[in-house]
Specification:
This protein is of the alpha/beta class and 303 residues long. It has one domain (61-299): Rossmann fold (3-Layer(aba) Sandwich), CATH 3.40.50. Helix content is 54%, strand content 12%. It contains 14 helices and six strands. It has helices at 2-14, 18-34, 37-44, 49-78, 95-103, 121-124, 130-133, 155-159, 164-183, 197-209, 219-224, 228-242, 257-271, 296-299; strands spanning 82-89, 111-114, 141-146, 186-194, 249-253, 291-293. A six-stranded mixed sheet has the order 2-3-1-4-5-6, with helices on both faces. α4 runs parallel beside α13 (257-271) and α5 packs across α13 (257-271).
């Protein structure tokens, strides 16, 4: 690798035209990426150079964004703020993977992940929101909801886990409850991770063949493809009835998991005025082609 860089220096002395100089700059940048631990590890696996470079660039960008998340967390803690981030989406949309990247380097004492199992017999007799209220953020804390009370907006009516009356009651109450939470000072962000039917099918197949992901499969997952249209109907109902100016739905195109992770982190960073934000060495403006507010016309029939 040292010889390669020496050769590049020699080439620089002989290349005079602008186009050639730009090409050398790009080549030098790529070789620098391959000097990283991640780049070399992938090179040994004989992956294509372009794919290696993309992966290393993703990891470097992710690390820089995670540095900003640490700043954000410290600001939330020092100023006793309360932040609640909801991750919703179809099965295999990449919600859990995104949360993992959000929390990877955060102080575990200052955040929680709420991933609630199906309600117990006692919980089914309680006020519907009661078991979720237990997990609302305390002062100085960020809580990540891996699915949320919006189970009653889609999963429960699709699979017959609630009555029509319970569903309608929820749909009427949730905007008022979210307004009350925000009015009380909670910062609420609602993500919908969107994927195509083809992407979901591909990811289900990967779960079946990858022993490290097999645990993610559930009976509900296996019905998700055949219930696609019904889920789409309830998803659109949820958007149209619970998307508000104070608690909008933020749609994340998650067909490319890596881009979805980067841009969703960027969106959260852009929403919160944490200390040190101006000193960031990375772009904090999310890509509107990946992350945007829900708009009825543009998101109908999408995942």
């Amino acid at each position: 690798m040292k010889t390669i860089f020496q050769d590049l220096e020699v080439l620089k002395e002989h290349v005079k035209d602008k186009e050639g100089k730009e090409a050398l700059k790009d080549l030098e940048k790529n070789f620098k990426l391959l000097r990283t631990k991640s780049g070399l590890a992938q090179l040994l696996k004989k992956k294509k150079l372009r794919k290696i470079i993309r992966t290393v660039e993703y990891e470097e960008e992710l690390t820089q964004l995670q540095v900003e998340l640490i700043k954000l967390q410290n600001w939330v803690y020092d100023n006793k703020k309360r932040v609640m981030i909801i991750f919703e989406g179809r099965d295999a949309a990449g919600k859990g993977g995104a949360i993992k990247r959000f929390i990877q380097y955060l102080n575990p004492r200052k955040f929680r992940v709420a991933a609630l199992p199906k309600p117990t017999e006692v919980e089914t007799g309680q006020f519907y929101f009661q078991r979720y209220f237990k997990h609302l953020p305390d002062p100085g804390e960020i809580v990540f909801f891996d699915r949320s009370w919006y189970n009653r907006a889609i999963v429960e009516p699709v699979y017959g886990f609630c009555t029509e009356e319970q569903y309608e009651k929820f749909m009427k109450e949730v905007p008022e409850i979210e307004h009350a939470l925000i009015d009380d000072g909670i910062t609420l962000i609602k993500f919908w991770f969107s994927i195509s039917k083809e992407t979901q099918q591909k990811r289900f197949k990967e779960r079946m063949t990858n022993p490290l992901k097999h645990w993610k499969l559930s009976p509900v997952d296996q019905k998700a493809q055949e219930m696609w249209d019904k889920i789409t109907y309830y998803k659109e109902e949820m958007f149209s009835r619970t998307h508000t100016s104070y608690a909008p739905w933020i749609i994340v195109d998650s067909n490319d998991k890596k881009r979805a992770r980067l841009e969703s982190i960027r969106y959260v960073l852009s929403r919160i005025p944490y200390e040190g934000k101006k000193d960031a060495v990375i772009n904090l403006h999310h890509d509107p082609d990946i992350v945007e507010r829900y708009h009825r016309r543009s998101h109908q029939e999408k995942g």
